[in-house]
Amino acid sequence: MKRKSFWESGHKPTLLGSFLYFDISFMIWGLIGPLSVIIASDYPMDAVQKANLVALPILSGSILRLVFGYLSDHIGPKLTAQIGMMLTLIPLLLGWQWVTSLSQLYVVALLLGIAGASFAAALPLASQWYPKEHQGLAMGIAGAGNSGTVFATLFANRLATHFGSWEVVFGIATIPIIIVFILFTIFAKNSPNRPAPKTLKQYAAVLRQKDALILCLFYCVTFGGFVGLSNYLTIFFNTQYGLSAVRAADIATFCIIAGSFFRPVGGFLSDRFGGTRILTILYAGAGIMLAAVSFLPPLPVVIALLFVGMMCLGAGNGSVFQLVPLRFGSEIGLMTGIVGAAGGLGGYALPLLLGNLYKSLGSYTAGFLILSVIAVLSSILVFTMSLQWRRTWLKNQAKIKIDNSAALPTTGEMKI
Question: What is the CATH number assigned to the segment(s) 12-396?
Answer without folding.
Answer: 1.20.1250.20
